[in-house]
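Onboarding guide, step 5: your first structure request.
Type a short instruction followed by the sequence, for example:

Predict the 3D structure of this protein.
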Amino acid sequence: MLRTSIRWVRLAAGNLLLIVAVLVFAKAFFPYKPFLPGLAQHADYHVDGQAPAPAQFQKIVFMLVDALRSDFVFGDNSGFEFTQSLIRSGVAIPFTAYATSPTITMPKIKALTTGSIPGFLDLILNFAESDTTSTLATQDNWLAQIKQSGKSLIMFGDDTWLKLFPGLFTRAEGTVSFYVSDFTEVDNNVTRHVEPELRQADWDAMILHYLGLDHIGHKTGPRSGHMVPKQREMDALVRQIYEAIETQEHLKDTLFVLVGDHGMNEGGGHGGSSAGETSAALVFMSPKFEALNVKQRAPEQPTGEFTYYRLVEQSDVAPTLTTLMGLPVPKNNLGQFIGDFLPLWDVDDQVKILSANARELSRLISTSYPDFDRMLAENICNGKDGQFDKLACLWHSAVSSTVPPEKRSLFSTFARECQDILTSAATNYDTTSMEVAIAIGTVSTGLFATVWLIDGLEGRAFYKLLFWMLSLSYGGMMLASSYVEEEQQYWYWAASAWAVILVFREVQRGGSGVYSFVFLALLRVTRRWNQTGQKYAGADDIARGFLSEHPALLWTLVFLAYTDMFWRLKHHLATKHSAAIMGTFLSFPPVLCSMLFKLSMAALDTKELIPGFLVDFAESIAQLSVVTQAQLVFLFLLVDIIYLLVLRSTGMSTATTSVSRIRPFHDILTIFLATQSRLTNIPVLWLFNTMLLLLDAMQFDTQLPILLTCLVMQHVSFFALGNSNAISSVDLSNAYNGVPNFNIALIGPMTFLANWAGPTLWTSATVLLTASWIERRHAGAREAQTKRDDDVVAAPSVTRLDAYLRYVEVMSTFRAVAMVAVMGACMVLRMHLFVWTVFSPKYLFAMVWTGLHHVIIDLVVAAMLHFAVA
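The system replies with structure tokens like these:
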């Protein structure tokens, strides 16, 4: 009893310390970036009382189309035909705007409006719809500059704008950005305001933020049949707004900007740093631009992967907009004025514009680097090769020059050099707290390691060596960015090596090895199901390649998968009374509703995945509310759970062993996770359950091989279902199943389970394998005792409590080693070029693995299956 109590205390203390370490490190690694408070004034940047360059526009329509990738507007297959005609006529000036990672809406709105580069912590705040700590109420931006000048603003669309700019809009209506199942209403709610507002003369800035195109990307990808029609819908709005600017007197001095906050990858996701995600379309439109005499081809061929026309930084938008409207450049701007618009002014005003931009950037350099401020004060050009020596020399040359073209060129070069320095500057990390967090994590790891050093774990030394080789090699891998990006390869190779070991084990015990060979073959299939990672993310695979081209085969596999779920659940719901009838009555509705729900969703989102003979039926089913359909699935599954619990409490269940009591709950979980998974991934869950049967047939004699299998397959299943260490791989398409509107308390868990469906299933599978192993141990002990004395029954050789504690000890040890390794890599490589594109996203995923999957699934859910159910 004392030994068990010590184990409980050690596990509780170790996991508590691990969570503390994770949170402390996150706070130190993802700090808010400091900024200069207050709003800029013209006097800040124009010396000797110089008047600023005159405004070219009095009003602005800022139309942001979420996830508007550059090729969607400028490419050959674009639906923006009218926009392309404006480019050809010279009244629209196009660019590709580079969006720095993380390519998520909130940080990108901040970049577009302030000209700054937001911190990575904004990625987390982006998902917290009720968060108000990320407001821009105290940070300079072009909207605040418009308001300061006595003008009014209106906004319709993504309610992120209302959170970022509270109290700034005279009229506004927000829509929830995360309800990705909606392609239509979310945009119609914006469009219905456009025509009446264009007739009004009481506003000076109109913000429109459309979400439907982004939602299509999340649900069906950039090649979806919904994509071009949505682009045409957006293009029709461009036509409506531009023609109003041409014809209505009160809009004649209006600048029209069409922009994307980010792009998307070939899977339809975003958040990472791939070319598709970082390349957003940007178009400035006005009849005044015809005077620039810039007529360009449209559609155009890209010069890079997604680079059309000239590449500009997204932060360049803010200084360009404010200058075009005669407003001061925002204080924290890191962007440059886009030089294509300079010919709108005479040479003297061009110098004023570039000088003001350069002075604003100079202030930021001086604030961040006191050495530069000192060099400017010395007012000399010493000719040294240092970075700030050269910068100071450039500044003095620009200020002292009397030739306008030369002065213009020098200020432009100075601004570009400042931008490069400021955008590449690392965050001011709290390294002390980071070190403390790593120390706490190391203590946690030490507590778990005592299990192996003091208590020991039953099993051969070979398996223990394998565990530590797996844990330590995985930890070392975290130091290499390429390995982090392609982590799935590590787990695929580890799983294959483990399967080969199982083959030898089975043969050594006198078996044929057939179970292990089939397991290895199924593992190979799951590896090819979804290409993931960075290098081969867009390559053909079974899900997006083969099955997409053979929808009849896809639905055959889906039908077989659901049929297997039905027969399993029907068999395991048997009771003492009317077993067959009750089993069918309780098993059929959730399975049928889940399959019909998936068919309805395919009819609405991915009709190309439905074979021709099913299309009419699917469309008729889709007439029913998909929210109601999903709710029915969950209701029927809840009824089954209640039924099982009632049976157990009344003693009517025919289940006499832990395994038979756990199995129906595993089957219910499988149906739920299938409902939460992408259609093309449902057959993979079937394969996982088949692999579970094969593992059970191998009859492990100790627990450690079972736990090693669980550990490996949790990670294999995560990647095999299409996930990766990139934020863009997070699947939101099933986050709203059964949820009628945004509710973070429901959406959060649903999003997690949709993306961690595989690891969750394998946690349940491990409980089943463990229960089966315990029963074999008990049976073996009883048989051995019976041979010695028929009247004496041997005590069980292992208890469920002991098995659960061993499970938690092994999983906690690996998770602690992995978490400390990730923290250490982020600490050591915090100045690395890929810290924000590779290591920061990996840390976020490691937080979810530890804080949600490990604590909630591996500890709590596994305990419920071990004790409450069995």
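Each response can be followed by summary notes, for example: Residues 126-133, 791-795 have pLDDT under 50 and may be disordered.
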